[in-house]
């Protein structure tokens, strides 16, 4: 199984979109202090995810969400996920 996921940081008030085959392990990596985008704060939480059969589909979904470049679209996804 593969996942396309969205993280949210209250401190930064920002979203991060990615894909992985191990959601729990990937979140732990995001929470570590590193030089990447998510490394500057450690309050990231998973607010949305979708499950895929393969990596290609998960990555395609990540790219499709990023291509929209819309916070409103991301928040609509999250809202529907939480309902």
SS-based class: alpha+beta
Report the order of strands and helices: EEHEHH
What is the number of strand segments?
3
Roughly how many Å is the radius of gyration? 12 Å
| Strand order in the largest sheet | 2-1-3
Number of domains: 1
Helix content: 40-55%
Summarize the main sheet: 3 strands, antiparallel
CATH superfamily, please?
GIY-YIG endonuclease
**Poorly predicted sequence stretches spanning 5 or more consecutive residues:** none
**What is the CATH fold-level name?**
GIY-YIG endonuclease
Strand content: 25-35%
Mean pLDDT: 96
- How far the N terminus sits from the C terminus, by CA atoms, comes to 23 Å
Q: Can you characterise this structure?
A:
The protein is of the alpha+beta class and 83 residues long. The protein has one domain (2-82): GIY-YIG endonuclease, CATH 3.40.1440. The protein is built from 3 helices and 3 strands; from the N terminus they run E-E-H-E-H-H. It has a 3-stranded antiparallel sheet, with helices on both faces. The longest helix is centred in the C-terminal third of the chain and has 14 residues, at 55-68. The protein is globular and about 30 Å long. The mean pLDDT is 96.
Strand-helix topology:
Blueprint: E1 2-9, E2 14-20, H1 23-30, E3 45-52, H2 55-68, H3 71-82
Antiparallel strand pairs: 1-2, 1-3
